Amino acid sequence: MSGLDKRVGSYEEALAGLTDNMTVLAGGFGLCGIPENLIAEIRRRGVSGLTVVSNNCGVDGFGLGVLLEDRQIRKMIASYVGENALFERQLLSGELEVELTPQGTLAEKLRAGGAGIPAFFTATGYGTPVAEGKEAREINGRHYILEPAITGDFAIVKGWKADHFGNVIYRHTAQNFNPLVATAGRITVVEVEEIVEPGELDPAHIHTPGIYVDRIIQGSFEKRIEKRTLRA
Questions:
Q1: How far apart (Å, rounded) are the C-alpha atoms in residues 48 and 73?
Q2: How far is CA 220 from CA 48, 67, 223, in A?
Q3: The whole model's pTM is what?
Q4: Given pLDDT bands bounded at 50, 70 and 90, which one contains residue 2?
Q5: Confidence tier at 96 by pLDDT (50, 70, 90)
């Protein structure tokens, strides 16, 4: 990797500098658009004490769920528990610190972090446990609470295509949280299905400009279905 060329040749190089007790922002929604190989590399590295910010925590045995198995996550900031039984057990036992955040608020906290906005007021959560310990204010007759922005040491993102400069396109619903996460990391790492030459991507189709991206790597993906339902 040199100059404007963001490509790296290995997952070890992609996550160079990741250490214990860091905050990792992870794109994806359920198992859709998750950076599955970067997650596997985090597991391989054995780092621990992580604060992980993601919409949820994968499923048992796949996605971010594998980091729960090895007790690598100290705190999870997410919108819901989902299909992950281990996540539920660690939450209920108190083994895992969990900060459940309304989904739209979580998205806005990441967007604000990427935009350099330290905090914002939202009506979501006012009068509920979500508001405990937070500043409240009445504006134009409606009550709001102050939510801090979120940034991270590393942002791990799954894209569809990218060029050498780190410009990224996401495919369909895999866009989900990935563009927000990509802006809010001190170091943003994107794994994609295909890396193309500069100029091959239509500028009008780029979702994440390369200015936000530090490293890109091409990988292969299982794209597991989170919950398969079949006719009887």
A1: 6
A2: 26, 20, 9
A3: 0.95
A4: low
A5: very high
Q: Is the CB of residue 28 less than 8 Å from the CB of residue 53?
A: no
* 158 falls within a domain: yes
CATH of residue 100: 3.40.1080.10
Ordered strands of the 136-139 beta sheet: 119-122, 142-148, 136-139
Cβ count near 190 (within 10 Å)? 31
Pairing of strands 168-169, 161-163: antiparallel
What is the C-alpha to C-alpha distance for residues 52 and 40, in angstroms, rounded to an integer? Answer: 14
* DSSP SS3 for 15: coil
Structural domain tally of the chain? 1
Q: What is the pLDDT of residue 226?
A: 82
In a domain, 9, yes or no: no
Q: Is 198 helix (H, G, I), strand (E, B) or coil?
A: coil
**What is the rounded distance in angstroms from the CA atom of residue 38 to the CA atom of residue 48?**
15
Residue 14 included in any domain:
no
- Enter the tokens of residue 100: 């459940």
Show the tokens assigned to 178. 């990935």
